[in-house]
Amino acid sequence: MPGSFRIATIAGIDIHINLSWIIILLLLTVSLATGLFPRSFPGFTSSTYFLLGLVSALLLFVSVLLHELAHSFVARARGLPVKNITLFIFGGVSNIEREPRSAGADFQVAIVGPLASLLISGICYALWALLTRGADNPIAAILLYLAAANLLLGLFNLIPGYPLDGGRILRAIVWKFTGNINRATNIAAAIGQVVAISFIIWGIFLFFSGNSFGGIWIAFIGWFMLGASQAARTQSTFEDTFHNITVQEVMSHNVILIPANISLQRLIDEYILPQGLRSALITQGEQFAGLITLSDIRHIPREQWATTPVGFVMKPVSQLHVVAPGQNLRDVITLINDRDINQLPVVENGRLLGILSRDAVLRALEVRRRLGIKQETEQDQHQPTSS
What we know:
Blueprint (H helix, E strand, L loop, with lengths): L3 E7 L2 E6 H22 L5 H32 L4 E7 L2 E6 L6 H30 L5 H20 L7 H14 L2 H28 L3 H30 L15 E3 L4 H12 L3 E6 L2 E7 H5 L16 E2 L12 H11 L3 E6 L2 E7 H14 L6 H4 L6
Parallel strand pairs: 2-3, 5-6
Antiparallel strand pairs: 1-2, 3-4, 6-7, 7-8, 9-10
Helix pairs in contact: 1-2, 2-3, 2-4, 3-4, 3-5, 5-6, 6-7
């Protein structure tokens, strides 16, 4: 996620914080310090309320982190790679790099998050009841707030609308009964859009009813959900259309290969300027060696262009994302979207066969839409899934 930085690693999972998280941390701290805590626990100083607000806000995000770790640990247990967890303005998100292979795994990964939040809520309430005995002190205030906040977090995430956990649970159930993950995703995402629009309308109503902050916040959540559910439907359309389509059916075979031993000056004079190239694919003999861009060239002083071989400046193939011609296109689309890549070299046995570009994928999608072509078969898409 843009604007994020790593703060820790837990069990091999990088924990990132997005800059937007700082905004909600400050807003939540001020809201608790000037609203909830003075009303619910009167008699403390202003500085005490702000300290309570900050500690409570930080502990709430620890709870969100535990919620996401629950998702991540179950995902890894089911063989799904987890890249990182990011805390941001709407809470947290686990970057699970591929979809579960079965409805059962999908259900387990989705439901464990809300269960973790409800468990944390129960623990905080039990500690409040046993340790503070209902006394009005700072510890009681924090524990009671965390119990209520995690209860709401767990219940909110059970709303059956994608991308909330409840929407993913619904998707898993539909997937189990239909055997079709794309159809299940579309149903869950469609319900998610209805939920999102309802949140936006509710937020607007609250805003004009006098609750400006609450209205803006709820409408903002609805807007985020609407974008995420629409993106899920778009991704599902990609996967539905490109089921059983391989990279070699869409890639471009018309590629210009540049020898690694020519100079930068010759590269510029004979290839980049005449053909308007922004990047060039480099080979050593018959083997694909790497990629060079205009940015790479600019790092070399101009007076050295005539004597510097391309191979000394290029990014080697070991630093590039490459795909195989027989790879399933829908898996590659996920890589393109997640890593924001515009083109991928297609390589087999070390030899460059072509280029797969984002534009080529979009053109292929548009052509298949216009022709009404879907590649999946009833037999492929309706096999029962095992959990």
